[in-house]
Known about the structure:
The protein has 16 helices and 11 strands. The protein is of the alpha/beta class.
Amino acid sequence: MPSSRPTRRSCPASWPRATRAQAKSLRPRWPRCARPCRWSTAELGPPVSASATPGPSGPRVVVVVDRAGERLTAAAAAGVAQGWTRTAPHTLVEAHDCHDGGAGLTAVIADRLGATLHPVVVPGPAGAQVPAAVAVVSATDGDGADIGAGGTAYLDTAQVAGRHLVPRERLTDPEGLSSAGVARLLRHARDLGVDRIVVGVGPLAAHDGGVGLLQELGAGADLAALPAVRDEWDCTRLVLVTTTEAPLLGFQGASASLGEHGVLPEVTQRLEARMGDLTDRVNAVLPPPRDLLTGLPHRPEREPGSGAGGGVGYALQLIGARTDDGARFLLDELGIRTRLPGSLLVLVTDRYDYTTVHDGVVAQTARAALGFATPTVVLAREVAVGRREGMSLGVSGAYELREGEDLAGLAARVARTWTPVR
């Protein structure tokens, strides 16, 4: 079967030279592009660092260390930055700490924002007095000068209600433990004259649905004065940052999640029933608003984050707190999100596993970087997931420590691949 492609014909050698020149002049002339060819090797440069915006010396690398759980210290970010620049001195490396809003929040705020720590002693979950601190960042004017009024207070509820404050055997049945200490911490923060209070809530020892907190704020034993408490806190901007989006009730709620900590099923079912009775009392005293379209009530016990801290999140939402994911909130609060465009993101965590992929600092920062088309790599002491799981976050590679290697050495090794010397 004859080919449909046109046959290329050349000028016969017997043609006179002038005739051949005339035939050549009849060939189509394609316009010459003013821009260099996109496949020019001179324009491509190194394949891995081309996406990072070069600064005065080279590509910009943003290192973000996951300080959640206090498994990595403040020195980890500096160590990774030093290791990276040791291999790639032409890069501009920025080191940042981030957190998920759980235990250790105030330490990160003090390190990153220069907060002032105000000590306070409040009742713990079992009633014993425990020390805590409120981190306060003063308000500034447009030039960055302290104006001496307002500001933001950051609270770490784990300091006054954390699981480490209670014997392990007591945690198997948390009935009788109270969240009243969180209310004392709130009042102390408000008395400092701040405009905004950020409350970090993670796993806590108490599982009272926030009743201890509300009663300490003046709601009464039967919570009848809850509307008055809500009005009292209406002028204070409360921000609830949580490590989980679990609701108060349901199969994915606060009581059901206690099974992960060794609480028996019969105990979790009893606690779930108590939480249900609590929400009925609250909805009778403080009727939930109704949706304008459907007419159905907005059930506060089903709101994301209401199950945080065994119901502390629920209580804070009842008095007007706005809720946000802790890691996502701190990306903006610490100014990390604005540093992601045009850089190479290096996430440093203790363990890179299925939990890390879905929640926390690594997941939220990688999703933010994906929105800017910023390449992301993960450095961890242990990697327990494959590349396919990380690709959903935009993570291009994950690297774990070798035997006898520290994070600085791992960073130096990975830098050879991702920011090679030109």
